[in-house]
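go over both lines:
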Amino acid sequence: MQIMLLAIQSGLTIPPNLILESINKNRAVPLVLGDIDFAPIFADASAVREDSASVAENPERLRKYRMAASFFTEHELGRHAGFYCPENIFVLMTPWTSSSGLDMVLYLYRAGATLIGMPSAQSPNSWGNLPEWRLDNSSISGEISSSFDIAFGDDPERGQVLPVHYPLTYEKLAAYDFDHNAIFLLALELLRDRCN
């Protein structure tokens, strides 16, 4: 599959004839369709020594880190070097999980999160970024999409509906007496079962 990847912040455009497999050849974490390649932002191959492990030993990386002052301060202090990485992440979804909320769900889904509830009404492969417009004379207003996001280019079924691992079915909803908190009750039930 041929794709075009944009490293937006560096302005680097990877030609459309470059194949994803060739981009991923020496990567520890391979890119997938829809990712942004930030590698050109943080490293300059000509300035990196082979044995360079720290930012201070890489002048180009150091220069770019210093451009983001708050990030560089955090990096130097090392306060968040040991971060919490939970083994299990449950994400509760409803049909109203959309837009940037769906983007976050997709990031967590790819990281191995367990989805609970109901699928989003928004397709993972869909139009997005809806700037509003208004006509001066008639005051008619509307929105028009300015992008098309492809989360699952190789899987049209998941591209239409992101399936949840544990759906809140009608039977489950009835078992919870149609409680407005049914999605939370389902999550608590699953947590209890995992802990036993």
User: Anything to note?
Assistant: The longest helix spans residues 182-195.
